[in-house]
Specification:
Layout: H1 9-12, H2 20-29, H3 44-73, H4 77-99, E1 113-115, H5 120-127, H6 131-156, H7 165-188, H8 200-219, H9 222-226, H10 228-243, H11 249-253, H12 272-300, H13 306-322, E2 331-333, H14 336-344, H15 349-364, H16 366-372, H17 377-399, H18 409-420, H19 422-425, H20 435-441, H21 444-460, H22 466-471
Helix pairs in contact: 3-4, 3-5, 3-15, 4-13, 4-15, 6-12, 6-13, 7-12, 7-17, 7-18, 7-21, 8-10, 8-17, 12-13, 14-17, 15-16, 18-21
Length: about 500
């Protein structure tokens, strides 16, 4: 008779206290007031500049989806610009929900939220050439998907037990690797139809910015070292002016004051097919957000437990449900900012909350948003290589704690990373699959995460017995399970903190 499937809680629960080393590091970082660095408040100037650095890192990612969806559904230039401002405003609201929170809403980590790219393709399919009606249908579907996700959050967060180091390390690595093509695209100019896309000027500008950021990190100390990315973006933008790739046109066209009028495109409309598509997108976003919270929790030295993830998912989904009220799209985690936290070592959630306030103000003051938009995409791409690479490096360090020499853990990582890289290495690989499935399949993070979870269960849990568990123990190292978890599951805090 086949052995009954058995789940060993200690072997798969990564949500226990950090190691003594991580705890000591956190205390040393803020020993004066006894607070965890996540809850530390910085002086106003440092708070503002560090928060502005987060905004600079994620600005292009926030405005890109409305920039794509607007023309696709038939909106003009001014209405598309309105969507972009609304997206900045709602991203700020969602970020404040995550960082400050209330009741059981919010992860209360330095967690940035913005418009999810996962919804771009289905939103275009829903609203293509339908103008205001198309936007109204998209907004109706997002509201329903957000409310559904809010209800599911307490149950979805329990999946954290299926994220041991062999899974989280794989997913964190895929997050970083999946973001690198975005940096490469920015480095080439961002618009593949433009005549200068991939030009020597664009790529050289990206390389110069990359070198500037690395040099600043090496030469500067203290607070200036922490804002090396922001300084690199400023210096890179100044250098780009004589190179002719800085566009000042947006400054002249922007309004000084503007508010995202509620339901500017009309009352939301509800269509079953659109709702189903956006509910699938919501599940994908919840999966990615869970992985991002686990990654960020390890980087800041406060591992994300079920309650933290539940609060984070509630903030994600509530922010998404409220966004259409102010003409915004579905909100989800921005993984690029995790790399910024890892690189700068600034772990205060109030810094990111300050970034959320800046986003809200940018949504209300379009001319201020245009100043941020002055940063050329090649400059942003050069900095992005460092940011996104830092995320991948954190994943590799997590995998180093996953006991890859035990059982089939190396095989789990190999297969999961391989499947997760398909959308990156071969973007048209799934072109013959139904469009609804592409929402999941075209996300290497989601597919790699699912494969890692299933293979971890198959190799390390299903069919295992007490005898086989005993054989995985090493008297020299103490009782360790095949998936790399100790009975007390120490959590490694990446050295890039």
């Amino acid at each position: 008779m086949a052995a009954k499937p058995r789940f060993r809680k200690n072997a798969v629960d990564p949500n226990t206290d950090p190691t003594d080393e991580a705890r000591t590091s956190a205390q040393e970082a803020d020993g004066r007031n006894g607070k965890h660095p996540v809850d530390e408040s910085l002086p106003p100037f440092k708070m503002f500049t560090s928060g502005l650095q987060h905004v600079a890192a994620m600005y292009a990612g926030v405005v890109a989806p409305p920039m794509i969806v607007g023309p696709a559904v038939g909106l003009g230039v001014q209405e598309t610009a309105f969507l972009m401002g609304a997206s900045l405003f709602t991203a700020g609201m969602a970020t404040l929900l995550q960082t400050l929170g209330f009741w059981r809403i919010g992860a209360r980590l330095p967690f940035v939220n913005g418009v999810s790219f996962a919804g771009v393709t289905p939103m275009i399919a829903i609203g293509k050439d339908r103008g205001h009606d198309g936007i109204a249908v998209i907004f109706g579907a997002i509201i329903v998907a957000g409310l559904l996700g809010f209800v599911l959050a307490p149950y979805f967060c329990k999946l954290v037990r299926f994220f041991p180091p062999v899974v989280t390390g794989t997913v964190i690595t895929l997050i970083g690797v999946s973001l690198l093509p975005v940096a490469f695209n920015w480095s080439q100019g961002g618009d593949a139809t433009a005549g200068d896309y991939g030009s020597a000027t664009n790529i050289t500008m990206a390389a110069v910015t990359l070198v500037i950021v690395l040099a600043l990190r090496k030469l500067l100390r203290g607070f200036l070292q922490q804002i090396a990315i922001l300084l690199g973006l400023v210096v890179g933008t100044l250098i780009a002016i004589p190179a002719g790739i800085t566009d000042f046109g947006a400054l002249g066209d922007a309004d000084v004051i503007g508010f995202p009028t509620p339901f500017h495109f009309g009352a939301p409309q509800f269509e079953i097919a659109a709702i189903v598509s956006m509910c699938i997108v919501m599940l994908v976003c919840m999966t990615e957000s869970t992985a991002d919270m686990l990654a960020l929790g390890k980087i800041v030295g406060r591992p994300a437990d079920e309650r933290t993830i539940e609060g984070g998912l509630r903030a994600d989904t509530l922010g998404s449900a409220l966004s259409p009220l102010f003409n915004g799209f579905m909100c989800s985690a921005f993984a690029q900012n995790i790399g910024l936290v890892a690189m700068t070592r600034v772990r205060s959630r109030f810094v990111v909350a300050t970034g959320g306030v800046i986003l809200v103000l940018l949504g209300l003051v379009p001319v201020a948003a245009s100043v941020i938009a002055l940063v050329p995409l090649p400059v942003l791409g050069g900095a992005g290589i460092v940011l996104f690479g830092s995320v991948a490096a954190s994943g590799i360090q997590t995998l180093a704690t996953a006991a890859l020499e035990k059982g089939e853990n190396a095989l789990i990582v190999a297969a999961s990373v391989g499947v997760g890289l398909i959308p990156i290495a071969a973007p048209g690989f799934y072109h013959a699959f139904p469009e609804d499935l592409l929402v999941v399949l075209d996300s290497g993070i989601s597919t790699g995460c699912v494969v890692a979870i299933v293979l971890n269960l198959a190799f390390n849990h299903w069919g295992r017995t007490a005898d086989t568990d005993a054989h995985t123990e090493d008297p020299g190292r103490g009782p360790e399970t095949a998936d790399g978890a100790q009975p007390k599951d120490p959590v490694a805090v990446p050295a890039v903190r």
